[in-house]
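DM from R.C. (forwarded with permission)

"hey, sorry to bug you on a friday — could you get me a structure for this? deadline for the figure draft is monday and I only need the backbone to look sensible"
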Amino acid sequence: MYKQGGCPYGTHRSIDPVGSLPQPAQKVDNSMEIWDNEILVEVETLNIDAASFRQISKQAEGDPGKIGEIILATVAQRGKQHNPVTGSGGMLIGRVIDIGPALQNKRQNISPGDRIATMVSLSLTPLHINEIISVRPETCQVDVRAQAVLFASGIYARLPEDMPDKLALAVLDVAGAPAQTAKIVKPGNTVLVIGAGGKSGLLCLHEAKKRAGITGKVIALDLTTNALARIRQAGSADAIIQADAQEPVAVLKKVEEASAGALADVTINCVDIPGTEMTSILATKDGGMVYFFSRSLTCWIMSACSVLCHSHLL
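My reply, with the result:
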């Protein structure tokens, strides 16, 4: 028997404070008896947000077993994988078990048995973990025996059968960054991508190059030699800068050189560490735009430029 009258946004699941939206809630109801407007998912893998996984790994001193214990403790306390330090979650892949009757006519693109990746954050997704099977630090992924609930407002993507799960997750996890890049980059723009050698950065480079066109210029910035090698291999950057994004003045000088003093019309910040906000703003010309993709960044609004902050809640 399904409970009825659940809020499409999941407020009926919020315990602390009662009735709040589930993402900012301190605790949600993670019982797996779904309401008539919810979807029940058998979870296979948690794709933990990179900043969150780094913090958990540091707390666990790199021990995969302790990483699992911390995740179990968080879910037991909060009813969701919502890192109390970083405030972020991640996403999951799993198989649809049940679709509440109030959604069955509205969700005709999926059926029980379909494998999906959630496109809403674990920080708002009721989750119950029975067992952690393995922890994979190299991909920030955790294989589990678990169940989760999607609300009526939750979005998801069916996993393609012709693509490995690892690749599908990598793309879906950062899909918001290149999508926003496509919206904000105009022909002829000078675009700076900070953290250009990571997953989101490489996709943003590709999209920026396509949108800025032959009259524009795309500048890629990253620190490590491995990241720079990936950028060169991708071939989407007109100029490549090796620099520490936490050093704003040093980066400013290099961007001035790469842009002939013009600075960036659009700066896209894809790094997942704080301390790079002022670098992004300084490197952007008056009237330009800064797009912060990572939730772990603090967004600043200054008269020097307009700032678009994307807190994708993953």
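R.C.: lifesaver. The CA atoms of residues 186 and 236 lie 16 Å apart.
me: no worries. The radius of gyration is 21 Å.
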